[in-house]
Specification:
The chain has helices at residues 18-29, 41-44, 74-82, 105-118, 131-135, 147-160, 172-200, 205-214, 220-231, 240-257, 262-279, 287-294, and strands spanning 10-14, 33-37, 53-54, 66-69, 96-99, 121-124, 127-128, 140-144, 163-168. By secondary structure, the chain is of the alpha/beta class.
């Protein structure tokens, strides 16, 4: 690919929550021409200091070349695209609509049909990572839809993270994200199990996870979850309720495809138990405390200054 031309596209951005704000800022810092709408205008206004134009409705972005959306869920996505003031409800429409929201296939198909009528190419572009990952430039995308549209927006995806993977046509990227989150559930539960096992045998969480992170088994995920596990900081990045939803979707797909998933099924039941113990709206890292309680181990924060692998 050639060098990025920041002025090649006029970009529209819908959604300035924790993720959307950080992603849009990376585009602005790269010199992109970005206009932004957010339901709560005040949350988007700080981006004006980086050069963003703040608009009063999604429809005000209809004349932009590329519009990215990252909102709370399917109802919000439908509202900002095909609702009364949606970006696809004007006389003009963006050439490309790239959606990074976690939504169901039915809602996506409804919006995709309207986009096609308007001559807009729609990409499904779910992400892997959280706001801290965005700030570190390590976000990744799975993208599906028309290949030419992907090739056109790919440089902007690269600006927002460390790269993207084109996975096929239609909404298949949303299925890829479900598979990703099934793995997430399995990995965090196993990480909780082995960390509790090591601590019960006399190894501190800081020491054990430090070793693991430097080994062949370490990963970006294990590193950035280490501060939470060592210091019992369950500040929300992803809730058990959302994780359970994706596990159920993945297991349902596995049944449809005739694929046995015994390990994922076991992880699903533990996440259900975590919710039953009142941790549904916290962070899924609380699986560590559930595993410790089941093992007769009382956890305390180690109050250690450990790296998260996202900086430096």
């Amino acid at each position: 690919m050639g060098a990025l031309d920041p002025k090649r596209h006029r970009i529209g951005w819908i959604g300035a929550g924790r993720m959307g704000f950080a992603m849009a800022r990376r585009l602005l810092v790269a010199g992109a021409d970005v206009a932004i709408w957010n339901r709560t205008r005040s949350k988007a206004e700080p981006l004006a200091d980086d050069g963003a134009v703040i608009v009063d409705s999604p429809s005000a972005l209809a004349d932009r070349d590329v519009v990215f959306t990252i909102v709370a869920g399917p109802d919000d996505f439908a509202e900002v695209t095909i609702g009364d003031r949606g970006v696809l409800r004007s006389d003009v429409a963006p050439r490309i609509l790239a959606d990074c929201t976690s939504i169901d296939a039915g809602t996506s198909a409804r919006v995709r049909a309207v986009a096609a009528e308007m001559g807009t190419a729609m990409l499904a572009a779910p992400v892997s990572g959280n706001a801290k990952v965005v700030k570190a430039g390590l976000l990744s995308f799975a993208v599906s839809g028309p290949r030419p549209a992907y090739d056109e927006v790919r440089p902007w995806l690269d600006v927002m993270g460390r790269g993207s993977s084109y996975v096929g046509e239609g909404d298949i990227a949303r299925f890829v994200k479900i598979c990703h989150n099934v793995l997430l559930g399995v990995v965090i539960q196993n990480l909780a199990e082995i960390t509790v096992l090591a601590e019960k045998a006399g190894v501190s969480r800081e020491a054990f996870l430090g070793f693991l992170n430097n080994s062949v088994m370490g990963s970006m995920f294990s590193r950035y979850k280490t501060p939470a596990l060592v210091n019992l900081d369950y500040s929300v990045t992803f809730t058990p309720e959302l994780l359970l939803k994706d596990l159920d979707l993945g297991l349902a797909a596995a049944r449809d495809q005739g694929v046995p998933m015994p390990v994922a099924s076991a992880a699903r039941e533990v996440v259900q138990s975590l919710i039953g113990h009142g941790h549904g709206s916290g962070d899924f890292a609380a699986l560590l405390s559930l595993q410790a309680a089941a093992s007769g181990l009382e956890l305390e924060s180690e109050n250690a200054d450990v790296p998260d692998g996202l900086s430096g």
